[in-house]
Specification:
By secondary structure, the chain is mostly beta strands. It has a domain at 43-97 and 155-251. The protein has three helices and 13 strands. It has helices at 25-31, 174-187, 231-245; strands at 45-46, 49-51, 75-77, 84-85, 91-105, 114-118, 126-130, 133-140, 146-159, 162-171, 201-212, 215-227, 250-251. The strands form three sheets. Strands 5, 6, 7, 8, 9, 10, 11 and 12 form an eight-stranded antiparallel sheet that branches. A three-stranded antiparallel sheet has the order 2-3-4, with no helix packed on it.
Length: 270
């Protein structure tokens, strides 16, 4: 009996890519650069990061999205292997691109759901005071749909050696955080006195609790961590900025997760 046939297969074998190329293969690859790939925005969707709120479905045991380890104030990175990050620990984020859109929704009383994105506020909207919150203005179209101004910060989450592209949306009360963050970025200057590009900087995004008579919610609190430390990260940020600017990247379609509390919309429609 050949005992060699009984040898068990190697455990924890890690695939290592072959780096030994035939002569001339690199030249062929360079000549074929980009073939088989798509630069269309609809084929390059960037996922969204959200802050979990007290009524987020990830915290509701009856929801199919329930996550037992999640808590209000945690950060959720969609599509990540470990999607829940504790808010007090936060994430390291390299902001690369900024844009604003007006997102149209079917009212929850009519079933809810995402309708469309608009570069500008539709001309047919009417400004109506929210009866539950007199300080809040709602923008409604004649068809009854609501339009919400949303600010998007796109960039890379730094996780060890990995750089993961994500988008952070800010709506309603989140505008205050977004504007303050943008003020900080605009205040950073180069040696020649000009504004630094956003992707030259790193921020730790932790979460903080906020409350008013309408309820309690959680927001991001960006902490300036200084400049990126490698040319690779700087170039990576510049490329992501340019890809969004050329329309080669698109934000993931938002979901109405039902997390809105009374009069509070912070990160509630993602």
């Amino acid at each position: 009996m050949n005992k060699s046939n009984n040898n068990p297969p190697p455990k924890n074998e890690v695939f290592k890519p072959n780096t030994n190329m035939p002569a001339g293969m690199m030249e062929r690859m360079q000549a074929d650069a980009g073939k088989g790939l798509s630069t269309k925005a609809e084929d390059n969707i960037v996922p969204i990061i959200t802050v979990l709120q007290p009524l987020s479905p990830q915290l509701q045991r009856s929801s199919t999205k329930y996550i037992s380890s999640a808590m209000a104030g945690d950060i959720m990175m969609k599509n990540a292997a470990n999607p829940i990050i504790k808010g007090e620990s936060g994430i390291i984020f390299q902001p690369c691109y900024f844009m604003k859109e007006w997102v149209e929704w079917v009212p929850r009383t009519s079933g809810g759901g995402f309708v469309a994105r608009h570069e500008q506020c539709p001309e047919d909207v009417k400004e109506i005071k929210d009866p539950q919150n007199p300080n809040k203005i709602r923008y409604l179209r004649p068809n009854g749909n609501e339009v919400i101004e949303t600010r998007y910060h796109s960039g890379y989450v730094h996780m060890g050696e990995r750089r993961l592209p994500y988008v952070i949306p800010f709506a309603s009360t989140g505008h205050t955080v977004s504007r303050s963050w943008m003020f900080t970025m605009n205040s950073k200057r180069l040696q020649n006195g000009r504004e630094a590009p956003s992707y030259a900087s790193l921020f730790r995004l932790v979460t903080r609790e906020r409350s008013n008579p309408s309820g309690t919610w959680y927001v991001f609190d960006p902490i300036d961590m200084g400049w990126v430390t490698t040319m690779e990260d700087y170039d990576l940020g510049a490329k992501l900025h340019d890809a969004f600017a050329r329309g080669e990247k698109a934000v993931e379609q938002p979901e109405d997760d039902g997390a809105t509390t009374a009069g509070i919309d912070e990160n509630s429609r993602m």
